[in-house]
Design brief:
alpha+beta
């Protein structure tokens, strides 16, 4: 058939293309935490509660095991409890669990 025409100009790459729309951050973890703490106004992205700076943990919004990179837009601050619940799962999992907990509390 004609399916070979589709791959007529196929070119193999030795290394994957590099994204140019994001930059790997050169900031230290403490610098990233301070910026996010200010951006989030001291609120946890999971439970939305106020915490002191030392109680926050740096989290990858898209986990590294799901191809999430070390760039500023992929970091957020979570309190220790929310970070344990989320683990290496996507943020949607944490938000779903937070809604389920809220519904359970309202039930009582």
């Amino acid at each position: 058939g004609d399916q070979h025409i589709l791959f007529k100009d196929f070119m193999a790459l030795n290394k994957p293309p590099v994204r140019t729309d994001i930059a790997e951050t050169k900031l230290t973890k403490t610098q990233i935490k301070k910026k996010l703490f200010n951006d989030q106004q001291g609120l946890c992205k999971g439970c939305k509660k106020q915490f002191d700076f030392v109680n926050f943990e740096l989290d990858h919004i898209i986990p590294r095991n799901k191809s999430g990179g070390d760039y500023l837009e992929n970091f957020q601050l979570l309190c220790g409890n929310c970070n344990r619940i989320k683990g290496d799962r996507p943020m949607e999992y944490l938000l779903m669990r937070m809604r389920a907990l809220q519904n359970a509390i309202q039930f009582y």
